[in-house]
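Co-fold these.
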Amino acid sequence: MNRVLGIVRTHLADRWSWIIFPWLILSISFVTNLIIVKLIGDSIYSGGLASIYIYMMVIGILSVAQTFPFIIGFSVRRRDYFLGTTTTITVISALSAIVICLLGYIERKTDYWGVKLHFFNIEYLTDGPVLERLWILFVLMIHLFFLGFTISCIHRRFGRNGLFFFFIVLAIAFTISVYLITSYHKWNAIFDWFGDISVIELSSGLFICTLIYVGVSYLLLRRATV
Amino acid sequence: MTISMDDSRPIFVQIAERIENDIIEGSLPEESQVPSTNQFAAFYQINPATVMKGVNLLVDQEILYKKRGIGMFVASGVREKIMEKRKEHFYEQYIVTMVREAEKLGITVDQLSEMIRRGDKT
Amino acid sequence: MSNVIEINGLTKTYGKVTAVDNVSFKIQEGKIYGLLGRNGAGKTTLMHMITAQLFKTSGQLKVFGEEPYENNRVLSQICFIKEGQRYPDNFRVSDVLKVSQLIFPNWDQELAYSLITQFQLPLKRRVKKLSRGMLSSVGIVVGIASRAPLTIFDEPYLGLDAVARSLFYDKLLEDYAEHPRTIILSTHLIDEVSQLLEHVLLVDKGKLILNEEAEDLRGRATTVAGESSKVEGYLAGKEVIHREQFGGLVSATVMGQLTVKDRDQASKLGLELSPVSLQQMVVHLTNGKIDREAGSTR
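Predicted complex below.
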């Protein structure tokens, strides 16, 4: 147990990357939006909240190279490294979801900061009840983190060439899908399907994806060397 | 401080010799306590197991003896004993080598003894 | 005494390159071992396998009686200070200590801070910004304060000055005396550490070529010098590990204790005999000119 905490401590020792930067980026994004909204004098539905989420994917990519060699070098099990990392991102995602939810509440109470800036309230995503809102905000973050983490694990396990091969396969798969959808005239059906999806369905789908990433990245790390 | 040991001879033998020297020179009087293994190890920066081996060599020769729970002590009457042992070595170690070297340099036995008498005065 | 490490026929290959070649040895509890050999001899690969950071190609490997891979009963008892240990970019020296406290079960924080002071390490500085010597000192502090039952130092004193090296030997011996454990010092520079070692493992080109008590090795090799015709005759039937020609003179180093008869013979032939230091013996054994396997002299 202590060893898992050691991993959490290792990640969070980098306060700048994990805590300060994401919120700093979000603040800058928020302030920029405020200025723009003042200048144009019209209401804005901002997408600025995405910045913190994209940032978390980058952290997912970076954290493997930053901490894995160090932790394995200190003779810790790969499994403990994995548990510690999962604990860290779970806690961070949960806390972030709560804070964003609270800010969204303030946003609504202050009549969108008095200038009609919709920053922490995203249409569709945060329209539902509180628990649903918390859940989607949480899942989005942990999903993006593990997406980045898994890509980085491919690199760790199979090196640069492995990562290259992975993206080639991905590109081919994507091309074939697009070709098939076009030739069977299924684009409308797909857009309809996406349009009908509920927030709960979306978040559950992303959560299942996350679980798959978790499984895959664990299998990759088990055979990774430093 | 590091007093380096000769790395081409077993160190435990050198430890035993140093303890014997201390006994002859009187810095380790008979019935006095010998420093502990760890003290030796720390002082010379050597492995404690090596020190132990050197000390045990002297225990086997009954130069040191162990007091349970206290440590190692110099046995009574061993100073004489060590000196006797050293005298035997002295001939082998110094005289034979010296005479051989003297022959090589063409120094006669008379000249050699003259030199020894001279050396005694300084 | 029980064995901390048991290795049997351990091999690691990378494609066509064999980094560790059919190596077998045992490491006993409570001793200080020297894992010696030139750079690239396979020492680091061996240690990486022992600590489950690399996967073996074949052979048997038991640490504390079990396979080390993903095994906390084994891994929690090991502290391996790698020469190329990497730290996260923003890690400070103080972070290393805080994390170590959580990772190593026997960690002594008080000792760690006292060592940090003695090695004059700046607690608040980023590990990335430390000099090579300071980085080595951080490793030494972690290695000693971890009090791990199996502590492995890989090239521990790179970049350290004489004062810091001496401090390392002092602190290591002091703590080892109070808390005996198994220590492996891996280095290509045997010179200074040789006195600390109880047992020597010498690796060359992936093979284990020497596995003996350090004390048994001191004085084991002798250099014979004299006229080449006489020396050559004298060498017959002896294990020659080094030979140097200088005009009509030959100086050869032989392994194995010389008997009284050997010495008499040398004296009659007018050959000069001189003992060889452990350091010099290792240099001769690993100069790439001889093939040898551990145990061939016994």
